[in-house]
Amino acid sequence: MGARQFSGTPTISPVSGMAHNSETQEWPLGTKVRDRLGNSYRYVKANEAVALGELVTAVALAAWDSTTVVDGAITANTTNVLHVDTNTSAWTKNQYAGYFVCQALAAGKGKQFAIKTHDAVGASGEVDVILEETMDEAFGDGAVLSIFNPFLVELVDGGTDHVLGVGIGTITSGYYGFIQVGGFCQAVLCDGSNGDAVVANEPIVPYATDPGQGQGMVGSAEGDIMEAAASPLIALRASSTDAAFVPAYIKER
């Protein structure tokens, strides 16, 4: 059975009903739900273990299955089918459905195209990848492909990482669950002791030394301003404690 579909944005109550940790994908990645207070959550896959309060970011765009390439040149605006080969490992049916694929940057090239469906294929096999839309750029024979999913997540581990959301419970590495992306967040894990102290009504930004944890933002240098703009989190309580849970407001994007 494929992933279930919601009609519209459903409401699930209480918040604990969204603390989900499943080995099997139950909804399309990125599915959005709300709790009875209007707080927002997205369905994601964890590329590494996520715990309550930890900050997560999207896994960076990377080469698709090491050496997956286009088999046969494609003229722009003619098809939504990518025929690919030389994958290094077997794929299950729709393993990459919902991901985005692109070719290397070049003049007029590099757009992300959403994958709708594909069949199962063995290692070193060939398969048609059906996209959601007709490709409006040309692909050369042998074009190397990269892949990205904004809802495949890992812990923030750099001071300027984009914060996608906050863990609301345990999601095992390789498993599926919900993260919070908007509204009142009860618990954001912060190191206001070793990192910068968290200040009420000011941004929380990633603390690179402790992956997944946040810290306060201090000073008024341009770099701090840019970090504030990149962070959707506003602390609702001060903290100078290591590994403490700080309530925060998440500005939904």
Quick overview of this protein structure:
With 253 residues, the protein is mainly beta.
Write the layout of secondary structure elements.
Elements (H helix, E strand, L loop, with lengths): L31 E3 L5 E7 L8 E4 L3 E2 L5 E2 L10 E5 L14 E4 L9 E6 L7 E6 L13 E4 L3 E4 L9 E3 L8 E15 L12 E4 L7 E3 L5 H9 L2 E3 L8 E7 L3
Parallel strand pairs: 2-11
Antiparallel strand pairs: 1-2, 2-13, 3-11, 3-12, 4-10, 5-6, 6-9, 7-8, 7-10, 8-9, 12-13, 13-17, 14-15, 14-16, 16-17
Can you describe what's shown?
The chain is mostly beta strands and 253 residues long. It has 2 domains: 15-59 and 159-250, no CATH class; 60-148, Elongation Factor Tu (Ef-tu), domain 3 (Beta Barrel), CATH 2.40.30. The chain has 1 helix and 17 strands. It has one helix spanning 222-230; strands at 32-34, 40-46, 55-58, 62-63, 69-70, 81-85, 100-103, 113-118, 126-131, 145-148, 152-155, 165-167, 176-190, 203-206, 214-216, 233-235, 244-250. The strands form 2 sheets. The chain has a 7-stranded antiparallel beta sheet with strand order 4-10-7-8-9-6-5, with no helix packed on it. The protein starts with 31 loop residues before the first strand and ends with a strand.
